Amino acid sequence: MKGVSQGKNAKHAASAPAFGKVVTLQIYGKDKYKRTLADVRLLDRTNVNHMLVGEGWCWWYRKNASVDTVLEGLEQEAREAKRGLWSDSQPVLPWVYFRYLLAIMGVINA
Prior knowledge:
Elements: H1 7-15, E1 23-30, E2 36-42, H2 48-54, H3 62-65, H4 69-81, H5 94-104
Antiparallel strand pairs: 1-2
Helix pairs in contact: 2-4
């Protein structure tokens, strides 16, 4: 599937800022899969969510953070600058790629 070439880079970028460090979570609730929705902050108060979206390494998922206009603006800037995932000419939404993987594994119908 085209558009997933940045996956390993994105995984590294997402773990690098906080791996092995003390962080705080500002928890907003749970999604429909019972995963925690939160902002991740480093001790210096850096918002890791904002950093990753601004660098183009993750998507702003509107359904779970629709009121976060900062994320909206950061994603737009990353798209326009073709940073991170946006350097790919046809980036694939993570949930589309996940469904694609489930389909090729035969877990769901395509």
